[in-house]
Every structure is written in C-alpha cells, then in structure tokens.
Amino acid sequence: MKLFVTCATLSLLFSACAGQTPTTQPASEPACSTATTRPAATTAPSVDPATKKILDAMEAAGKTTKTIRADLTYRLVNTSLGDTEFRTGWVAYQSRTVVKSPTRTLTRPPMFRVHFETMRLGRGKTTTSPVDYAYDGKNLIVARAKNKVINRFQMPPGGKGANMLQLGKGPMPLPFGQKTADMVKYFVCTNRPTRATDPKDTVYLSLVPRKEHAKALSTMYIHMWISTKTWLPVKIVTRDKSKNIITSTFSKTVINGEIKQSLFTIPKPIGWKLIVQPLKQGQNIRP
Fold this sequence. Notes:
By secondary structure, this protein is mostly beta strands. It has two helices and 16 strands. A twelve-stranded mixed β-sheet has the order 11-12-13-14-15-2-3-6-7-8-9-16. The chain has a two-stranded parallel sheet with strand order 1-10. The protein is globular and about 55 Å long. Residues 1-41 have low confidence and may be disordered.
C-alpha cells in the first residue's frame, strides 16, 4: 500500500497548504540603452465556472472545519499484476491551530492519523493487521504491528513539511481543506453531470496533473466525489505512477468533534524496533 494523501488518495481532505507563487525576473537591460524591460506577465490557469464553484465550496468548508474523524475503506488494485488489497479503518484530522498564552503564541500545523485494522489480499481471508500512520507536524510515524516496527520519518528542512497534506505531494492523499488556487495551479480541474452510479448527494471532480507539474506529483489522476452537504470528499479514486489504482471511501464522518492531541503521536511500545530516517520529497511508503 502506498501513502500518497499513497499523506495521493486520502490527504485527501483538509490541508491548508499554500502553493508557492511563481515569480518572473525582468531581463537585464541591454548596454547603452534607456529602454526598460518589464517582467513577463503570468497568466493564472483557467477553470470553468461550475468547477470553480465546487473548488471554492471545498475551500470554504476547510476554513470552518477544525477536526474530522471518519471510517475509512481502502482498496488497491495493481493493474500490472492484477493483485488487490483491501483495508478498513478510520482517519482523523486536525487543522492548523493557534494556541495563545500570556508569554507566547504557538501555531500547531495540521495533523492527521490513519489507522487500518483489517486487511484482505485478493480473495483471501480478512485478517486483523493493524497499521498506523500519524503526522504530528514534525514527523510522519508508521507503525506496523505485524513486524513490531515503528518508522519515524523526519520532515525535510526549510518548512517543507507543509506539503504533507497537499494533493499529489504528500505520502498519503488526504484532500481536506485544499485551496482553490493550489488545485488549479497543479491540476486541470473539471467536473461532469451527476450519474446514477455516483454516491448520493455528491458532485464529481476530476484532477489531472498539469504538464508542467506532472513530474513532481506522485499521481496520474484523482477522481473525487464531494458531498453537497459538507463539501468534503466521500470517495476518492487515484492512479499512481506504479500503476496502482486506489479507491478510498469515507463514512460516518464527524466534523468538529473533540480529538485528543495524543491521537497524533505513536509512542514506541516495549520490545518494538524504532527506525529513524529522513522523509524524501515525494517519497512513497509501503507497509
């Protein structure tokens, strides 16, 4: 299984990531000339009004959504080998928060936790196979109960950990709280009329990486079905560059409920092995 989110399918719901603003430097002025060369104008990528309305509604929902907790199903199909993997569990998310005290103001970055409890390979038997992913704003922790191993991936320097929840850049697709400007910058965004096979009370959104960003993103496409009641994704289908098609569904979603901070950390149990290593940009992680 890949962490998008494989931190390109789940990260699916609430990041407050901001894309870098492109800048164009003016050309050097030729010698013996008084002419001034102006910077080349940059044109923002276009998006049709109906699609932009959906993106704006998602961004607005992200601004008022402080926490999310939902049941999760995850299905991976390897189109080359025909292998399938099905997991069930839950996901929790907390948006960026500001904590003030008499002496200082502390800003906590967005955090998430994904817990998979069961697993089924192909047509085999469903087994209990706990795997946890937790991001506390500083480290991405992956805990595999089967092997009794905890991997602690440290964020790259320079604040690049902010990309952990950005679609197509983090290790797991969690599209909560995405910004319209970021979505349009990195993806060709389109929608279509509702079909009878779509989940109830949803609108469809297709995201295909723009040519200039395709190499840097970990996904080939993202299909999302967005609830028209909460404007949060209820189903996401992605295809990564390893020819895996990943379908994630969210149900029994609780918005702005209480979530303890301890949920986003995973302490090392006695007898488990701890491996600490840097997280490379765009790195995919398998359990």
